[in-house]
Write a structure and sequence with these properties.
Blueprint: E1 2-6, H1 14-20, E2 29-34, H2 38-55, E3 59-62, H3 67-71, E4 76-79, H4 90-98, H5 110-134, E5 140-142, H6 147-157, E6 163-165, H7 169-180, E7 189-195, E8 198-206, E9 209-210, H8 212-218, H9 229-237, H10 245-248, H11 259-265, H12 272-291, H13 298-301, H14 307-317, E10 321-328, E11 346-354, E12 357-360, H15 368-390, H16 393-402, H17 404-409, H18 412-428
Parallel strand pairs: 1-2, 1-4, 2-3, 4-5, 5-6
Antiparallel strand pairs: 7-8, 8-9, 10-11, 11-12
């Protein structure tokens, strides 16, 4: 077994990468780590080797200097990249903020996500192309945001490679709900479908008892939970949504433009410096582990719950696992996994993984109001992806105009000015295709 870990120096990838070096059930295997930053790659590889040695894992960690070598003969590639690293995100926060646009995460939806896609999609296409040539049939397991946009663009640019998006948002949300409802860990029965970071939970039960009435009642109380954005959305649309309240506030038009809503729901806006500090801290942990400066506490690192290690283990052992994946809504036979959503979009749905790979399936129906929110998001995704595939600056402007947060905050002319400033800034830094220049 060979696993290519592309973007191994990504701070957000560190602990999943550690788990990829600690698979005890699959026999001898190789983790080929690749990153464009050799110094970060050396640190992460040493971190992985220390984890493998501590657990007695049969993993061999290699650090090929070239992408082609990393993916050559791979059975799967796990990809988490950040083109331009953290510094490339700074303009995505600072330029919109100067125009009065508030953001909270800016990597999966909104103008921040659209711009991030423009600089990320070409790199993902290069990885997929190398995989198609050097490891035909190997899936590209994408952990890179903006998840839905990246998967849509990669699948369209390199359709011969199966691109599967993996996100921890669904199972983390289920665990949070279980804690709110005081249900033992792992016993909550739940389901839902939607789009990445915006899966609406359709059912909640425990030992045959429907828990949604109690959960909805909790959203009507005067508590910190009831004052969150997600509780507010559940009161208005009937169903709880995945991802944080901070992040959900930028998917819709009803919170960030308004001072009173920000105060009422406790939303932290434009936190670029905070995000950069978190990433620096994460990589510092890897550096200290790699050097032996701190003791290796495996129990605090693993298991991560991330899906890529589970998929790879199932590919070898045949063990069946239930996961959630981001995949094209239209299946090979032309049917839709989520009939309420666009045929050309990438949706997040339940799946099983086993020795034959990953098998997405249809989930519960999405209630009409929730589906309407999903569809608007996928419309923005479609225009952003067209900006990539067509090399069209006009599509970038259209995606920004349709973004719920931007359109609720600014008139069209100001949105256009903001978009041009963002594109010019990234173009000057060499992060965007020439086709998107003025």
């Amino acid at each position: 077994m060979k696993v290519a870990a592309i973007g191994a120096g990504s701070a957000q990838f560190l602990f999943e990468l550690a788990e990829l070096c600690a698979l005890l059930e699959i026999g001898p295997y190789e983790v080929a780590m690749y990153d464009t930053d050799p110094a970060r790659l050396t640190i992460v590889a040493d971190f992985g080797r220390r984890v493998a040695a501590e657990l007695g894992s049969p993993a061999t960690i290699s650090t090929p200097a070239e992408l082609d070598e990393a993916v050559d003969g791979a059975d799967a590639a796990v990809v988490s990249i950040g083109v331009g690293m953290q510094e490339s995100i700074r303009p995505d926060f600072e330029i919109p903020a100067r125009h009065g646009l508030r953001q909270t995460v800016a990597d999966t939806c909104g103008i921040g996500a659209v711009i991030r896609l423009l600089r990320t999609a070409p790199a993902l296409a290069d990885i997929a192309t190398a995989l198609a040539e050097r490891a035909p049939g190997a899936p590209l397991l994408n952990v890179t945001n903006p998840m839905a946009m990246c998967c849509m663009a990669t699948q369209r640019l390199v359709p011969t490679v199966t691109t599967i998006g993996l996100c921890h948002s669904t199972w983390i949300t289920a665990a949070e709900i279980a804690r709110h409802l005081d249900v033992p860990d792992g016993e909550l029965e739940w389901g839902g479908v939607g789009v990445n970071h915006q899966v609406f939970i359709s059912r909640l039960s425990h030992r045959g008892t429907d828990l949604y009435p109690r959960f909805r009642a909790m959203a009507e109380e005067d508590t910190p939970f009831a004052r969150t954005v997600r509780a507010d959305l559940m009161r208005r649309f009937g169903h709880y949504v995945t991802e944080s309240s901070k992040h959900n506030s930028e998917y819709v038009p009803w919170y960030l433009p308004w001072d009173d809503a920000i105060e009422r729901h406790g939303i932290a806006v434009n936190p670029y410096d905070e995000r950069r500090a978190i990433n620096d801290d994460l990589f510092g942990i890897a550096r200290d582990h790699a050097s032996g400066a701190i003791d290796l506490d495996i129990g605090s690192l693993l298991p991560t719950g991330e899906y890529a290690p589970q998929i790879i283990t199932s590919m070898v052992t045949g063990a069946v696992r239930e996961i959630y994946v981001n995949v094209p809504n239209t299946t090979d036979d032309g049917t839709l996994l989520v009939p309420e959503l666009q045929a050309g979009g990438v949706v997040e749905v339940p799946a099983t993984c086993d020795g034959d790979g990953v098998h997405p399936r249809a989930g519960d129906p999405i209630p009409p109001g929730c589906a309407a929110i999903n569809r608007r998001y996928l419309d923005v995704c479609e225009l952003a992806v067209l900006a990539v595939t067509e090399g069209s600056r006009e599509r970038v402007h259209q995606a920004a105009l349709l973004d719920p947060n931007a359109s609720a905050t600014m008139p069209p002319d100001r949105i256009a000015t903001m978009v041009d400033e963002l594109l010019d800034a990234h173009q000057a830094a060499g992060r965007l295709p020439e086709a998107l220049s003025r």
